[in-house]
């Protein structure tokens, strides 16, 4: 039995179908500036592969570009401009590193805070990540250190991971650390420190204690992990902190068992999103045919342009629209639209493969994605599809428990 499994008894992970996994430099950097070391990353890569075999999706937020760059050009110092240059040197090595450990194509995605603050960039990043997941690729995300400056930087990859979890509508945020999880004191300095397996709320007192000094919770960087967990919790996403250096702990994740700390979500993500979509002001309406209405109601499908009969109102990409059955005008759903009203007027009734030929670009094959859609009087299409595709029944059981 490892130290982490001894300190942290196994607990079940919340049901999940899409997770964001954050891996820090301490798990990747080699000794004495030796670039990237796969000894811990290999186990995490096996977990990602196991998740794929279970029809689950993982988005990877990975540090390590600076360490990889420093191994290519040996230099001292640690200023912002130098780190930007080293990150630029190391990005290709970082992606190649993960590609060697992955059986599927790896895609590099670089983000800054400005990308997530700007409406157009946010929607573009969201659409790109969804498309990568649909294609079966492994997105590897890092902060764009090459162009980021202090006022635009997200600050660290823990907080970046929390932002990405919200961006991609993840069910779970996984943060791999170099210790077992959260402790009541510094485990190497305080002999009375006890492991904390569950955190209901990240309190200001907890953050202060995690800042460092006597009685600090963990061995460094724990405050940013708790900050990230607090942000994820606000978005309805639970966070699991675990030791990425412990092969037994990492292997247990594939069986939905956590040896570490679970930070609870403040609310159910799907329920909160459904409520928001149900009550947010609509900017227009899409009139859809009977086939599309049936696909939404029965199969939990996304709305494709071929099912759109007419477009009503003026709206922008990302606005909320009502979905109405063309035959009788009945409102059956509401969702976030992926194309504006003018663009939809041009592609309505067309096959998804024709979108780029007509518009000259394509944000995705759907007009309203199932993750952004709520059926009036029922579950979201994402919930319908998740329950139908869940081989273990975990999602359905969770639904019954919430009811």
From TrEMBL:
Pathway entry: Amino-acid biosynthesis; L-proline biosynthesis; L-glutamate 5-semialdehyde from L-glutamate: step 1/2
Leader sequence segment: none
Keyword S-adenosyl-L-methionine: no
Annotated substrate binding sites: 63, 145, 157
PROSITE patterns: GLUTAMATE_5_KINASE (PS00902), PUA (PS50890)
Keyword Nucleotide-binding included in the entry's annotation: yes
Subcellular localization, as worded in the UniProt entry: Cytoplasm
Binding site for ATP: 22, 177-178, 219-225
EC number(s) from the headed UniProt entry: 2.7.2.11
One GO-annotated biological process of the protein: L-proline biosynthetic process
A GO cellular-component term linked to this record: cytosol
Catalytic reaction equation(s): L-glutamate + ATP = L-glutamyl 5-phosphate + ADP
UniProt entry keywords in alphabetical sequence: Amino-acid biosynthesis, ATP-binding, Cytoplasm, Kinase, Nucleotide-binding, Proline biosynthesis, Transferase
Record-annotated PUA domain positions: 284-368
Name of a matching Pfam family: PUA
Molecular-function GO terms, alphabetical: ATP binding; glutamate 5-kinase activity; RNA binding
Function: Catalyzes the transfer of a phosphate group to glutamate to form L-glutamate 5-phosphate.
Family in the record: Belongs to the glutamate 5-kinase family.
Protein name as it appears in the record: Glutamate 5-kinase
Organism: Lysobacter firmicutimachus
């Amino acid at each position: 039995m490892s130290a982490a499994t001894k300190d942290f008894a196994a607990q079940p992970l919340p049901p999940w179908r899409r997770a964001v996994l954050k891996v820090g430099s301490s798990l990747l950097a080699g000794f004495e500036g030796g670039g990237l070391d796969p000894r811990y990353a290999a186990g995490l890569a096996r977990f990602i592969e196991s998740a794929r075999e279970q029809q689950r999706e993982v988005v990877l937020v990975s540090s390590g570009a600076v360490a990889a760059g420093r191994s290519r050009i040996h230099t001292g110092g640690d200023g912002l401009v130098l780190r930007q240059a080293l990150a630029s040197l190391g990005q290709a090595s970082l992606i190649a590193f993960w590609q060697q450990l992955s059986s599927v194509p790896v895609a590099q995605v670089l983000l800054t805070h400005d990308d997530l603050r700007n409406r157009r960039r946010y929607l573009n990043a969201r659409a790109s990540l969804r498309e990568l997941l649909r294609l079966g690729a492994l997105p590897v995300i890092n902060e764009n250190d090459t162009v980021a400056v202090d006022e635009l930087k997200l600050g660290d990859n823990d907080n970046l991971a929390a932002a990405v979890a919200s961006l991609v509508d993840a069910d779970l945020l996984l943060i791999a650390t170099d210790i077992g999880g959260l402790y009541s004191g510094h485990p190497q300095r305080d002999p009375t420190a006890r492991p904390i397996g569950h955190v209901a709320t990240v309190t200001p007192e907890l953050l202060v204690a995690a800042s460092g000094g006597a009685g600090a919770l963990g061995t460094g960087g724990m405050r940013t992990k708790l900050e990230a967990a607090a942000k994820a919790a606000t978005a309805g996403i639970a966070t699991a902190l675990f030791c990425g250096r412990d092969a037994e702990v990492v292997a247990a994740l594939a069986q939905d068992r956590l040896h570490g700390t679970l930070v609870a979500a403040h609310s159910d993500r799907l329920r909160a999103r459904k409520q928001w979509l149900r009550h947010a002001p609509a900017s227009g309406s899409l009139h859809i045919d009977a086939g599309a209405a049936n696909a939404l109601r029965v199969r939990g499908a996304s709305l494709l342009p071929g099912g759109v009969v007419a477009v009503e109102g003026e709206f922008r990409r990302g606005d909320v629209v009502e979905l109405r059955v063309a035959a009788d005008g009945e409102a059956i759903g509401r969702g976030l639209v992926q194309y504006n009203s003018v663009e939809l007027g041009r592609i309505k009734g067309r096959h998804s493969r024709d979108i780029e030929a007509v518009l000259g670009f394509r944000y995705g094959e759907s007009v309203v994605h199932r993750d952004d859609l709520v059926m009036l009087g029922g579950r979201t299409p994402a919930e319908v599809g998740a329950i139908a595709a869940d081989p273990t029944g975990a999602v359905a059981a969770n639904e019954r428990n919430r009811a």
